[in-house]
Design brief:
The structure is a single chain. By secondary structure, the chain is mostly helical. It has 6 helices and 2 strands. A hairpin with a 2-residue loop joins strand 1 and strand 2. Helix 5 runs antiparallel to helix 6.
Length: about 110
């Protein structure tokens, strides 16, 4: 039951935002130009700030796993041919701290 609640806490907000965005687009509150500008803003400002905040508060000596980093590096080099996808996978595989993370993204912000 605990795993179900953890999974729902991770997925329900994502799906709620998707449904809310679809609803706002349907009633013409959000158009394609606004969505494009917000997408650019989120990737240029809040996500790097969140990444910096998370990295600034980590103790690298306790979480660094050389075997995992090398494994990710070699699997990425061997399996992914598209350079954009390599960078994306590298970013998410190196930015990890369990158990607050699912698929490479921190779902529970630390205040």
């Amino acid at each position: 039951m605990e795993n179900l609640i953890f999974s729902l806490n991770a997925t329900v907000p994502v799906f709620a935002m998707i449904i809310l965005g679809m609803f706002f687009k349907k009633i013409d509150i959000i158009d394609d130009v606004f969505a494009s500008k917000m997408n650019k803003f989120v990737f240029l400002i809040p996500l790097p700030v969140l990444l910096f905040k998370d990295l600034a508060t980590l103790d690298f000596k306790t979480i660094w796993d050389t075997k995992f980093v090398l494994f990710c590096f070699f699997i990425t080099i061997l399996t992914i041919k598209d350079e954009y996808r390599k960078g994306e996978l590298f970013f998410f595989s190196l930015r990890r701290h369990y158990p607050d993370q699912v698929n490479g993204y921190d779902l529970s912000p630390s205040y």
